[in-house]
């Protein structure tokens, strides 16, 4: 099963936008994410609709933050990404009439739902500003060692 990296890619792009000296083009972001500019535009469309980013067309245009990172939570980005699956599908449906399969699936599903609920609650508490400050702290430590 292929993993969904939309959330990670969006976070990556947003954090780079904060440190950019101007708008970032879809081509620039695509190079950072090792993907295609069309994928970038599709990824950022949900964030634009939510007002978290803005885009300008033409020469000198590109993507910029629409609000400060402290106003964007991981949950906001997750929702703007279309709420991708957080966990792989753990259940099988080889024999839906099998009582063992039914019991296993019921418990696995309940556990995954509980874990998703806890994860989303945590997402709600973490802002992109928190991540940006962590990056700066680590950068200062790396520079001090260098």
TrEMBL record:
TM regions (residue ranges): none
Record GO terms (molecular function): DNA-binding transcription factor activity
Record-linked Pfam families: Rrf2
Gene Ontology cellular component terms for the protein in this record: cytosol
InterPro entries the record matches: Tscrpt_reg_Rrf2, WH-like_DNA-bd_sf, WH_DNA-bd_sf
Name the UniProt record assigns to this protein: Transcriptional regulator
């Amino acid at each position: 099963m292929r993993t969904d990296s939309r959330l990670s890619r969006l976070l990556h792009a947003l954090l780079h936008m904060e440190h950019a000296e101007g708008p970032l083009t879809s081509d620039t972001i695509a190079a950072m994410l090792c993907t295609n500019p069309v994928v970038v535009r599709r990824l950022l469309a949900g964030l634009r609709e939510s007002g978290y980013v803005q885009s300008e067309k033409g020469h000198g245009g590109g993507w910029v933050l629409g609000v400060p990172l402290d106003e964007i939570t991981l949950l906001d980005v997750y929702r703007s990404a279309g709420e991708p699956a957080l966990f792989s599908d753990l259940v099988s449906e080889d024999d839906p009439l099998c009582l063992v399969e039914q019991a296993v699936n019921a418990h696995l599903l309940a556990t995954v739902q509980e874990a998703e609920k806890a994860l989303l609650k945590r997402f709600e508490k973490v802002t992109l500003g928190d991540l940006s400050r962590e990056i700066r702290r680590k950068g200062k430590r790396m520079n001090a060692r260098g």
